[in-house]
Amino acid sequence: MRMHRKCHLDERLEACKKILTTADLTDKNMLRSAEKKEYLNFERIFENGNPVHLEIGCGKGKFVCETALLNPDINFVACEKISNVIIDACERVTAEGIKNVYFLNCAAEVLAKYFRPHSIEKIYLNFSNPLPKDGYKKQRLTHPRFLDIYRGILKEGGRIIQKTDDRNFYLFSLESYNRAGFEIEETCEDLKNNPVAGDVETEHEKLFKAQGKPIYRIVAVVK
Prior knowledge:
Largest sheet: 8 strands, mixed
Radius of gyration: 17 Å
Strand order of the largest sheet: 1-4-3-2-5-6-8-7
Distance between the termini: 41 Å
Oligomer: single chain
Shape: globular
Number of helices: 9
Helix content: 25-40%
Strand content: 15-25%
């Protein structure tokens, strides 16, 4: 089902411009677009030099908002390619006065356009679309082509923390991390019964747990 465009979306996005960068993807060639650097200045954005974490695919912002409130000494950049969705997260941050969250409205393919090399300490991948058909493997956010992008912006020893309800995607991701030279630091195949301190439940996670689905978690480290 196609998502209806939210009322007054452009005006609402404009009202959030202090906490939002929207990618100019006039050039549909993602590789070429990523080469035209527009690095985010974190010290200017957040007015401090705190560590930066990145969530890719933030949805309506529950995870990043609650995680940011629990970790005021960490700055969070939340990336979401669908403007119709990211607006909810932006407006929540504005309404709640959360100071350590900034948003990036872009696709993961162009992250290197906005992040300086080796500037991020953690990346969160929460319930990314598993895209189960074989023809879509290269579009999965843990395919090696994306892992190469993440490696470029993560600091040495930086981590990717991934959660999914899809076992096949979990297994695919484990294989991809190994192929891309990441170290698997942790795995969990039943997060509901093995909770991790400080781990915030996402909107999808709450729904999947209520349905009795197992939640898988991976922590992969840049070597």
